[in-house]
Structures are given as C-alpha cells and as structure tokens.
Amino acid sequence: MFTEENLRKVEEIKKRYPTAKAAVLPVLWVAQEQFGWISEEVMHYIADLLGVPFSHILGVVTFYTMYNRRPVGKYHVQVCANVSCMLRGADNMVEHLEKRLGVKVGQTTPDKLFTLSEVECLGSCGTAPMMQVNDDYYEGLTFDKIDRLLEQFRDGKGDHEGKRAEIRTQNEESKG
Q1: Are 55 and 134 within one domain?
Q2: pTM score, two decimals?
Q3: I need a surface site. Which of 82, 125, 132, 163 has the fewest CB within 10 A?
C-alpha cells in the first residue's frame, strides 16, 4: 500500500524508536501525507505493518485531531476554538468562513478546495484568533485577512506562497 519510498521512511522511523507502538504517530503521518487521510483500511494496514493491535492505531487516530479520518479539501482550514481564540473572536471568524466558503464546520466545499474544521488549542494564544491551513499558521485574524487568504488559495497560491503573501500584507499594514 505504501510507496517504496514511504516503506523506506517507515523502516527508518522504526529504527529510531524502541518499540513499534512508539513509532505509530510518525508512521501515521507518513500515511496521511501519502493518502491525504487515514481510512480504516489504512489503519489496518499500519497495524499489520507495525505488528500492533488495530485498537491501538484506532485509539491514536481518534485521539489526535491532526489525523484526518475522512478526506479533506486541498486546503484544510482549521480554526482554533480554545479559550484565548474564542475570547478574541474565533467564533465570529468561523461564522465568516462558513459564509465565505458556503459550508459548515466539518464540511468540504463542492469543488473539494476547502474543508473547514474547528480544533482545540493550536498553541498560538498570544496571536489569537488564529487558524491553521494545512501546515501553516495564520495569526491575528480579521475578516479582511481571511478574505485575502481565501482569494490567494483560490488563485492557486497555496500553503507557503500564501504564507509569504500574508506576511507581506502584514508588513504593508504595519508601515501604513
């Protein structure tokens, strides 16, 4: 199921950990990078590959929100819903995103471009409200900033290009 390259990665991961159970998280990450999400079939595959019980793999996947248990859009928009972000307006940001994307939390846009999620603390309380899109953080959110970011993603300036564009926008705002 894994590509040859990913099988090699798994072997390297296994060498770095004292037990197969200890290697579960990074191996799941490899799987998510290859498949985009962790299906039940993939969980069984990893359990067999590592020789650990399926129940352990299932427990890890269902505990950590970083593992997608269903397919997500090209851009997985995850808004922090913890105390600091909520006190600074994250609920308004979620409502705005729902309107702009035309989906509710937990849904994916029909074009499969965006999936909207609420997640627990993303560890950026000092820059609340914030969201993570794929692997990048976007902090100090405003409605305008969200709108600009969504446009950048729609225009194909994803992840790191979008992050750089967002940083340029912050720098321009601080000069003006």
Answers
A1: no
A2: 0.80
A3: 125
Edge-to-edge strand ranges of the sheet holding 131-133 = 114-119, 75-80, 131-133, 136-138
Report the CATH number at residue 18: 1.10.10
Token code pair at residue 133: 């899109």
Domain count, the chain: 2
Residues 28-75: tens digit of each pLDDT: 999 999 999 999 999 999 999 999 999 999 999 999 888 999 999 999
Residue 69 domain flag: no
In the chain, what is the straight-line distance between the N-terminal and C-terminal CA atoms, in Å? 53
Pairing of strands 114-119, 75-80: parallel
User: Given CA atoms 159, 164, 168, 171 in this order, what sign does their dihedral have?
Assistant: positive
DSSP of 115-158: EEEEES--S-GGG-S-EEETTEEE-S--HHHHHHHHHHHHTT--
